[in-house]
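Async update (no meeting this week)

Hi team, since we skipped the sync, here's where things stand on the single-chain job. The sequence we agreed to prioritize is pasted below, unchanged from the tracker. I ran it this morning and attached the output directly underneath so nobody has to dig for it. Comments welcome in thread, and please keep replies under the output.
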Amino acid sequence: QAQYMLFVDEPNLSEASIDHYLDTCADISGIHDTLLKADTVGTLQSLVELWRILTVQNSIPAGAQDASFAKVIAPFAHVRQEAEVFDAGRSGVDVLSAAAGAPAGDRQDALMDLLVGKLRALPGAPSSPSENFVRIFDAQLLIPIDTLFTAADKTAKGTADAKTFKDITEQLSRLEEAHAVHSSLSTEEKSSFALGYWSERHTEQERKLNPDKLLKNTDKKDVRDALAPFLRDSLLGILYSYYAPSGAQLLLTNPMFVRSHDFIGPENAPSAWRSTEVSGTGWPESGGGRLMGSLVTLPYAIAEAEQNFLTPRREQALIWGDLVPQMIIDVTINRWRNVRPEQIRWVSLHVQRGRALFAAAALDPSVARPVLDSYRRFATPGEVERVQDRLRAGKFAAATAQIPTSVLYAIANDPALANVSPDIASSEIADMTAQNDPDLSAAAISRCFGTPKPTLTHSYQPGLLYLRTFPALMGYSSRILAETWESNNLYFAALADETAVPVDQLDEYVPEWNRSTIENIFATHLEDWPALLRSLQTVANNVRQRNSQSAAVHSSEE
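Output:
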């Protein structure tokens, strides 16, 4: 059932491709060799998730999405040997590269360029996504996919030598060093750790690889058999590196985290096609835990595992557990590489317009009525009354301090308020609207700056629903509550416009702003959702202060 989320996210898939995928899943489930099954599941799901990322960011054109998906999964039908898994994985990489128009050459670099852009380091800017990607991939002791393909090809041709397996040998040596010696565990610890039995077998299988023995064996099939588990880990590691949040620590400190992904699960509850879950946390032996299940909800699971390594600076009340993973995937699924300056300006103008309408409402009762009528769609009656009282008292700053940015944006978009108290922002919005730019449509803006809502919509496609913030249930927050908070990306867009951050650097800055926002949340009680706005404002003030200091330094130098 969890796999159906894939079909919701990808409307361009045909019925034939969906049926073929489900048939392939059923066929793989029938594999009796558990290690082979785990490698097959891991390799297939990694390729499918890579395909999904490339389609979401439009790297694979809409017209080629269905055909490329069918080609990726076709070789996995009736797999019964590790060599077939290796060939199917290699075929899938080639299909994805060709469908996305990647240049011929190094496949690993081509995939990284497609996912996070070329490796670059900007002076004075936070680490780029490509830097983080390379750092995490290396920290997980993974072998680049081209190294594996080259080793298989040269061995088959009889041209392999010690140099061919040099990188593999070095990584195996590092893997041996990183492999912790299991100490004596309590019964409870053993029970918890036993959930990763097959992932432990998988790691042990890799550690036993003998490159010297492979050099003496010219049978291509045997080499592919030995390298298939490594290819699974490398493809999986690309996904982990892609979804790793800014400030990720678990992926940097636990070099076994990717290899420990358990695609099998406990015997009485097979997990190969279920949602991704975090398991085994809390025990030192597990090094922070592992992920278990399929990859269909991988972004949230990584965020959930990494949130334990973010350090809040103040009390977080009870909103931390569900809110933080949601805030993380808001920027790990949403990417800012392809955002246009016009879209940033559009969001900023609407946020300005929303604030201006409330300011006008504080000064003119005739404006207050339509503005508050629009506000009622997004707030409870009690919140509307509080804002109304503050506007009447002339406390505009206090009134707007607790209004989410998504609500300001939505009110500015209300056609009923288009001609109410016109200002400079509304005039510029009208000029941009007249250009009929498709990138400024409601759907395009929603896709760029909205948030994923897997619980509300059964989809990871970003969007804006403009719902009221869901209340806490029985003293705890919930996934639904976290998913109804839609303000952060809109706020960051307005901040980027205000501080003139270049659009091509937003993928560096926004994740850092998001992490600072998480760490600065100071909630006094469970329903204190304005704490999120206060944290956003704190981050914005820090950004403005740094910009002012930087401008002063440049001015003195001149």
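Quick observations from my side:
The chain has a mean pLDDT of 87.
The longest helix spans residues 530-557.
Reply here if anything looks off.
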